[in-house]
Amino acid sequence: MDQLRQSDTKRLLDFVRDCYVIRDSEPLTDFPGRLVKALLRFIPSIHATYNEVCTETFESYNTESTAENLAPNVSKLLGQHMNEHASLVYYMQTGDGQATRISDFLSRRQFHDTGLYSDFYRDYHIEDDLCFGIFVRPTLSIGIVWHGDRRFTERERSMANLIRPHVVQAWQNARLLSEVHSQRQLLEDGLKGAALGVIACDSEGRVRLITALARQYLAEYFGVSKGLDRQLPQELLRWVRCQNAQLNGKDVPPVRLPLAVRKGENRLTVRILSSAGANLLLLEETTSARNAAALAEFFLSRRESEVLASVAQGKTNGEIAAILSMSPQTAKKHMEHILHKLRAENRTAAAAIALQSLSRD
Question: At what angle do helices 154-192 and 27-42 cross, to 10 degrees?
């Protein structure tokens, strides 16, 4: 390739920067749409597309395009004529994902004689494609395509080859980050039933992961509502540092007692696990026995009173089960008895009755 022009270098740097930026909660789902917009800025053309292609059937699906007026059945049309797409056929036969053009294989007349052109490309004034392939797995590849109303130049093909490894790496980044998001969601869903808040942070209190329940506990017990996804509250950070300092001393460290923070009649207990500068904090809220005793006027059993006190705090059956060391099914059964004794239609009505009683107390 000839020496890059200054304008080429700027476009290349802008594309690489755009390619690696991930702002969304579903990185792999949002990646194709962001990519095709960056592709069109990089190499001017009618439009650009991202196609996932089944290498066994030539069927194309999950097409993302910068063209707003593409036919709604574009994937079906492309699938019908993919065996006439010279660049795709070359990629399937050789496995060479480097950038190629239809004009590398067919003259203009030969291209116009294909069903791909007469049934599809002609309506969009497409006279050439510039594309490269990305191998995903034996049965799936990704095709990146620029569609032009002119023949693409050799310089543009060279520019496409320069960005190909960046697109491959950016796609891998989006895939891995999507997996992390999915695993984190599974973790959060699993912990909801355990009524535990979880925070992963480094030795400086920088938060790497925080569940929704932990975020709620920090706001309620430490009076902090901003920046919880980034940094531990100072009071909690001082305790973490003190705990870790004890492990680094020469003497045998004392038993690591949990941190207890009270709010009214309720208590938040924070436990810590540490390893090589990484900390895992487990946060658990316990329901006040005094609150449960205040509900005795409803002729509830001790266990039912404890369950109702937790319901008044907005706890789910899963959270109540974890707090009171019972199964969710047992918590549900207690709730049924409570509704019957209170003559309440649902748990919201029962919570309202309990809160009214607790306020009088």
Answer: 160
What is the structure's pLDDT at 104?
95
Cα distance from N-terminal residue to C-terminal residue, the chain? 83
Looking up tokens 């008895």 gives 337
Give Cα separations from 246 to 205, 241, 254 (angstroms): 17, 9, 7
Question: 19, 44 in Cβ contact below 8 A?
Answer: no
Instruction: List helix spans (H) across 129-268.
Output: 154-192, 212-222, 234-248
Q: Check residue 284 and give left, alpha or beta (phi > 0: left; psi -120 to 50: alpha).
A: beta
CA gap 312, 291 in Å, rounded: 10
Strand ordering across the sheet containing 128-137 = 60-65, 47-54, 140-148, 128-137, 100-101
- Please identify which residue in the block is written with the tokens 């496409």: 160
Nearest in space to 243 (alpha carbons), one of 221, 218, 274, 214: 274
Q: Which two tokens stand for residue 258?
A: 């949990």
Closest CA to 293 of 354, 216, 231, 217: 354
Question: pLDDT digits over 55-112, tens only?
Answer: 777 676 666 777 666 655 665 666 677 788 899 889 888 989 999 999 999 999 999 9
Instruction: Report the half-sphere exposure of 18 (CA within 13 A, side-chain side).
Output: 18
- Please tell me the distance from the alpha carbon of residue 331 to that of residue 280, in angstroms, as a whole number: 29
Computed on alpha carbons and rounded to an integer, the radius of gyration of the chain in Å comes to: 30
Pairwise CA distance, residues 10 & 4, whole Å: 10
Comparing C-alpha atoms, which of 130, 133, 164 is closest to residue 45? Answer: 130
* pTM of the predicted structure, to 2 decimals: 0.57
* 290 backbone φψ class: left, alpha, beta (φ>0; ψ -120 to 50): alpha
Question: Hey, which of 144-153, 175-184, 275-284, 304-313 has the most confident mean pLDDT?
Answer: 144-153
Which tens digits make up the pLDDT trace of 126-146? 999 999 999 988 888 999 999
Q: Which two tokens stand for residue 203?
A: 């030795």
- Residue 164 is predicted with a pLDDT of 94
